[in-house]
Amino acid sequence: MNLANKPVDIKPVIIFKNVAHEGPGYLGDFLTLQGIPWQTVNSHELALLPKSVLPYSGVVLMGGPMSVNDDLPWIAPVLELIREAKAADIPLLGHCLGGQLMTKALGGVVQKNAFKEIGWGEVVVSQNQAASDWFGEIEIFNSFHWHGETFSLPEGAVHLLSSPHCQHQAYAIGKHLALQTHVEVTAQMVQTWCEHGLDELLESASSPAVQTANAMQENLPLHCFFLNKVAKQLYGQWIKGLVY
Q1: What pLDDT, on the 0 to 100 scale, is given for residue 10?
Q2: Is the pLDDT reported for residue 4 higher than 90?
Q3: In terms of C-beta density within 10 A (0-12 exposed, 13-18 middle, 19 or more buried), how is residue 222 classed?
Q4: How is 33-48 classified by DSSP, letter by letter?
Q5: CA-to-CA distance for 238 and 160, rounded, in angstroms?
Q6: Among 108, 136, 178, 192, which has the highest number of CB atoms less than 10 A from its own CB?
Q7: pTM, 2 dp
Q8: pLDDT of 14 strictly over 90
Q9: Mean pLDDT, rounded, for 204-223
Q10: In what side-by-side order are the strands of the sheet with 166-173?
Q11: So what's the pLDDT on residue 7?
Q12: Domains of the chain in sequence order
């Protein structure tokens, strides 16, 4: 679906960044190639948060090292914007912390995962119609992870993905998609995250689901090349629900 020939006044997608080094990555490239305007806002800059998401065609929430259960001043207003988007049928797309924000806003629970999961690892696509709609013929793929918490499935959610160390890697509620895993990463992002997260990697080295920085960066361009293909499939499905 290429929207390059759509009118120039199509509403943009808004992307909430929760930390400077966790931006839209491949998603930004994808939207640009599709001719879909997008803009980012830093969620922690309260004065810049939109009062409403109704002027936008879609709402995206990126990751971050914080927890949705932390007492941070920006979390409550972002949760309200998520609820507004859901009520207005504006498609939501959450990555890692973004998926957890969606979950909390929609009545689910976010809690500590049994294992911290950092690095490359296989995820398996669920066997249901919604999963087939989102993933097409993809049944299993190698994705990138960086999380210590996990989400439950809110009311109406359909399970889409699992991994050996985290049962709930993704779910959908109609046109809304929540991901625990990071399908948006580029090689540069992985390198940057390894630099910023070095202390966390050292502290979590005993987890069976945590890789070293060196291991994460082996064959990195190839890993990202194949993950971009998965992301392209997912994002291509997601933009079908954009509101114009």
Answers
A1: 84
A2: no
A3: exposed
A4: HTT--EEEEETT-GGG
A5: 14
A6: 178
A7: 0.95
A8: yes
A9: 96
A10: 38-42, 13-17, 58-61, 92-95, 176-179, 166-173, 158-163, 110-125, 140-151
A11: 46
A12: 13-241 (3.40.50.880)
